[in-house]
Amino acid sequence: NSMLYPKTSRTRRIVDMNGLWKFCFDPESEGLKNNWKNGLDPKRTMEMPVPASFNDFFTDKDSREYTGDFWYETSVFVPGEWEGKNIGLRFDCATHRAVVFVNGEKIATHEGGFLPFTARINKVVKWNEPNRVVVCLNNELSYTTLPAGSTKVFSDGTKMSKPFFDFYNYAGLQRPVRLVVTPKDEIVDFSVKHSLEGSDSITEYKVTADSDKEILIQVYDENRKLVATASGDKGVIRISNVRLWEVRDAYLYTFRILLMDQEMIADEYEEEIGIRTIEVKDTDILINNKPVYLKGFGKHEDSEINGRGFNLAVVKRDFELMKWIGANSFRTSHYPYAEEIIQMADREGFLVIDEVAAVGFFESLMNFMEASTGKQTAFFSREIVQTETKANHKAALSELIARDKNHACVIAWSLMNEPETTSKSAVPYFKEIFDLARELDPQKRPRTFAMVMNSTPNACKCYSFPDILSLNRYYGWYNRGGYEMMEAKEAFIREMDQWQELGLNKPFLFTEFGADTMAGIHKLPSVMWSEEYQEEYLRMQFEVFDSYDFVKGEQVWNFADFQTTEGIMRVNGNKKGIFTRNRQPKAVAYVFKKRWENLPLNYKSI
Ligand code: E9O
Question: CA–CA distance from 332 to each of 338, 408, 516 (Å)?
């Protein structure tokens, strides 16, 4: 099952399957029993755009909040001239799980809503005819799903999603779907790891192919000039006077991989690769042996109407805003983003902390009310977590690293967001996950996880696992907000002093800090939720960040206001955005712009 991003080449073809599909809900879960795989009942179906989340199209609440099985159907014509080729159906994601049928036959199942999978359909394909594609999706949350949550069932049987996380549980075919045509002998995987030698780069590469035919590699620069070649399924490629990929100054070589059948090209695949090194040394994050300071955001894939549906126009706007404000990085909170976003980060020279969808591993965090009344079991001490959740987590992590391992922009893996870390049962779980990331990544990138406020030096049992410590801290918001802010600052400093005393000798990042702010609310003196308060709160954070040399970056929560489940803590979503959901600046955006444009890339390491 190849994770290579679908591309056309001399030997490869793609059929775009996006557009209007048939769609219906299946609240009784009857479709799998009643052979809906042979075609959905026209009386029950409506049209649904792909890619998109289904939720925000609807005007009735039952549909928007729908939880359970739901179905998509389309058909794809497969020309007979492709007989003898491998035909795959590639879903860039199916949220949160899917069973795929082609011409009535089950061809794939997939768990996890944010990573791609490809199903080979050669055994069931009909040449020169339309082929029926039917997909059963399901968006229920549980202790074993990534992200984690629960599903409530009302007395009439209606289900409702109860996320243990703070973003709306959007679902559907949220990213592109394509038919991918590759040769019978195909290139399956390709990986690179770079090192530097004077002004040269040395790239160790590895190719996996479905045959033992000869492999050739050709490397082109941005002027399409051939700069290096190699042969064999593994080896090294030296580029002399290499033009490195640098932060906000990207350069991408094209690596062309050829599978040769004597003089004939059996398969061809090209990938754009930035050459850089990444390393953590003492309290520094080094890119190409130079220290960097991260400025940027925790983000979401989230916009009006599309929900979490892939929207290249919004992606473009976000990059333009990030450049305008002087950012150089973001975290893919709280799930792997569409590959096109990672590609754009490569092209624009942004640093990405790539996060797996292991969020909600702290059930009481988002259920304050329920937590105060009921007894809580520590998340990691549940047996099902140590078995099923862990298996899903490992699978998702393996898929993430397989998908994103060659990207220059990806400088770290974030293996969890705000898990419980205070119970002993967390420790062996962390160990397995952190070990797996190290084992799978050819570039051995630093690993991190975002630490919630109660993961303090005294209470946290897991801070020795990460290579970079990432703190989500809300002193002056969740802790001592408003007029208590001076005291919040003292408490913040006390915690930072404790980290300093521990002497971990590792870089720290702030991966979250922020204050909910309603755009347009102005108040003098400030009150919480006003634009004035957001600014005062953030200036206080900066004072603390600036006084600790081991703090090597700041990613504010959040880039933009985003949709969440409704509740007493949220006014039509989380309003901690520096930009509104429509991607316009709040007043504080200009404060960031001034600060970030003036912080040198090697801030605190000069
Ligand atoms: C995760 C992120 O997805 N961190 C949350 C963000 C938020 O704005 C959320 O959107 O709420 C912060 C968690 C803070 C927990 C503080 C605990 C204090 C208990 C009163």
Answer: 10, 15, 20
- Is 30 catalytic? The answer is no
Helix (H, G, I), strand (E, B) or coil at 588: helix
Rounded average pLDDT over 364-382 = 68
pLDDT tens across 279-306, in order? 999 999 999 999 999 999 999 999 999 9
Residue/partner pairs of 376-381 with CB below 8 Å, 24 or more apart: 378/420, 378/422, 378/423, 378/425, 378/426, 379/143, 379/148, 379/419, 379/420, 379/426, 380/419, 380/420, 380/423, 380/425, 380/426, 380/429, 381/423, 381/425
Strand 105-111: give its sheet, edge to edge.
46-50, 19-26, 69-78, 129-138, 97-102, 105-111
Residue 364 confidence class, pLDDT cut points 50, 70, 90 = confident
3-state secondary structure of 231: strand
User: What does R_g of the chain's alpha carbons equal in angstroms?
Assistant: 24
> Alpha helix (H) ranges present in 51-144?
61-64
Residues in the chain: 606
Q: What are phi and psi of 118, to 5 degrees?
A: -125, 135
69, 26 contact by CB (below 8 A): yes
90, 82, 73, 180: which is closest to 127 by C-alpha? 82
pLDDT digits 0-9 by tens, 47-103: 999 999 999 999 999 999 999 999 999 999 999 999 999 999 999 999 999 999 999
Instruction: Determine whether 512 is an active site residue.
Output: yes
Pocket of ligand 1 (CB under 6 A): 166, 334, 365, 418, 452-453, 472, 474, 478, 512, 557, 574, 576
pLDDT confidence bin for 363, thresholds 50/70/90 = confident
Average pLDDT over residues 153-165: 96
Amino acid sitting at position 65 = E
Q: How far does residue 175's CA lie from ligand 1's centre (Å)?
A: 27
Lookup result for tokens 């940027």: 296
| CA 415 / ligand 1 centre spacing (Å) | 17
> Which of 111, 140, 418, 554 is the catalytic position?
418
pLDDT in tens, 383-424: 999 999 999 999 999 999 999 999 999 999 999 999 999 999
Q: How far is CA 31 from each of CA 76, 111, 192, rounded to the nearest angstrom?
A: 21, 18, 44
